[in-house]
């Protein structure tokens, strides 16, 4: 066997081991995310508008949460708890926190959340107005889209397990 073939076999074994052992801890099966720690996603809708618009691309660091939980207001990619679909949303609350949405205002443990990233006139059109009072269970987080009136998020499908977390959006490309 030539040195080139041996080198290629070793390289294949290394990449295979990286894929199988998933050192980034990501919830996706995409080899780029599992082996390289990054992935690129295209955005199909406007639920994160004005921060991220339909047609934008995002670079996601899948290794971002390998050893820590996400911070409030991080934009994250995750798999929904009820279907195997990947979503991009803003993390609003972590495990053990009480989230309340009263008349379009978000409170975390009784403290009003400052949200400069959403347009004041497009918070919640009446057709989607939902008051929420929910304590985030252990091992879960709560997400909302920035375009609250046009977003399918934790208000509808509930808290998301940390095990469904894929990574953090680190760059938005127009």
**Terminus-to-terminus distance:** 48 Å
**Strand segment tally:** 11
Based on helices, strands and strand pairing, what is the structural class? alpha+beta
Q: Biggest sheet: strands side by side, in what order? A: 1-2-11-3-4-9-10
Characterize the largest beta sheet: strand count, sense, and whether it forms a barrel: 7 strands, antiparallel
H-E order: HHEEEEEEEEEHEE
- The portion of residues forming beta strands comes to 25-35%
- Detail the poorly predicted runs: none
> Helicity level, as a percent range?
10-25%
Give average pLDDT, whole number: 89
Number of helices: 3
Radius of gyration: 19 Å
Give the overall shape.
Answer: elongated
Can you tell me about this structure?
The protein has 174 residues and is of the alpha+beta class. 17% of the residues lie in helices and 32% in strands. It has three helices and eleven strands, in the order H-H-E-E-E-E-E-E-E-E-E-H-E-E. The strands form two sheets. It has a seven-stranded antiparallel sheet with strand order 1-2-11-3-4-9-10. Strands 7-6-5-8 form a four-stranded antiparallel sheet, with no helix packed on it.
List strands and helices in order, with pairings:
Layout: H1 3-21, H2 31-36, E1 38-42, E2 57-61, E3 75-79, E4 86-94, E5 98-102, E6 105-108, E7 111-112, E8 132-135, E9 140-144, H3 154-157, E10 160-161, E11 165-173
Antiparallel strand pairs: 1-2, 2-11, 3-4, 3-11, 4-9, 5-6, 5-8, 6-7, 9-10
